[in-house]
Every structure is written in structure tokens, then in C-alpha cells.
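Both lines are quoted verbatim for reference:

——
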Amino acid sequence: MAAFTAAFGVFDEALSPLGQRLRVLLSSERAVGDLRCYFGVGLPPDMAPFTGSRFEHLAGGGDRPEVAGRITAEDLLAVQTLSVTVPAPVALDILEGPLGVQLSDLLQAIPKDIDMADADVSVLADGSPADQAWNLLRDQYRVNWVIAGKILARKRPRLLPVYDRVVRCAVGRPPSFWLALHTALREDNAALHRQLLTLRRAAGVPETVSALRVCDVAIWMGHQAEGHACPR
């Protein structure tokens, strides 16, 4: 693991603050084992993977072509595997009402076949369709920033990250997590993105799990294991 750490320049002072923090966290000796545990790679028969391991794969994924432009009941169920629930009135509005129509219009303007590391910053910027969709969801009854982000991460797993209170506790609170993560993934010739792909291969996690989810899971598992009491 020391060679792995050195190869990715964990302590490069030229990196952004989030980039430096992520390099350190993702170079933990436990990262590969945590990913295997979460996704059920090589577990004995009497052990089950985390329910969140089904988040991106349930019913074929939220970004498959026939449903990429709308939020389905399967997407709302997938979000529950990450320990949040969309309130019933909002879920019904998404599935049968005008909220679903508004979100569909926005989703169709958000790229679905691109990684965050390869996306132009305008795709994630304030006022972009992704930002509008996040704000529209967050403004709904009892839908907070965590739930809004998880719904969008289900629809665009390569482009938009899962970001919850545990991850925020681990990495801090940049003014815009999306933009800060975008910078971190692209700097130093996309070294952080490559580090995530290396972790994915080392853990034997399927390639259908995005680099962003590898990042989220590795950080979440490590921070939970350290027993931090994360503020709400």
C-alpha cells in the first residue's frame, strides 16, 4: 500500500484541498477490503453485502436508455437501499404528477454517458439542468439535500455523486461539492479518477459501479469504521 500511496502523490501541495483530502482517505490500507465487503466480493455464504450494493444495479440501473429521462418507482426503491426514503406525496408527484414532468424535462438535458472527470464544468454549474433538478427536488416536502442528491446519483451515476452527512463529515463542506469534486478528479492529469479505477479493479468490483460510487463507498465505510459522530 505504501507504493500505491506514493504513486498517486497523496501529499502534493499543488492539489486542491478536497483533492488532497480524498487522496489521503482513498489510500487507506482498508479501502480495498471495505469495497469488497460493501459489494459482497468474496464474502462467505453466511455474510451478505450492504443493501446499498444494489443501488446502481437494481432493475438494470437508473441510467439505462429506456428510463434515463424519467424517475421510476424502481429508482425510488433503489434510493431506499441507501437508507433514505422519498416521502409518499413527493413520490406520487414524481411518478404521476407535474413534478415528474418537470424532472423529466431536466433529466433529458443532463448527459448520461460521461464521467464527472470528463464532463465540462458547465454541466455541473449553478443553473445547469443538473443543478435545477437538485434544487427542484430539495424544495419538495421533507426532501433534503441528501435525498435529492441520491435520486440524481441513481439517474446519472457516472456524473453525479452520492453525498451524505457521513461523507461530508469526512471530507468537509466546500461551497459546491460537485464543483470541488470535479476539480479534484481532473487535476494532476485526472490522477484521482485513475486512483478510483485502480481501487475498483483491486477490489474486484464490477465496472458497472462508477468511479464516483467507489469514492463514496470507500470514504463512507472508512469514516463509519472510525466511529466519528457526524453532525447533522
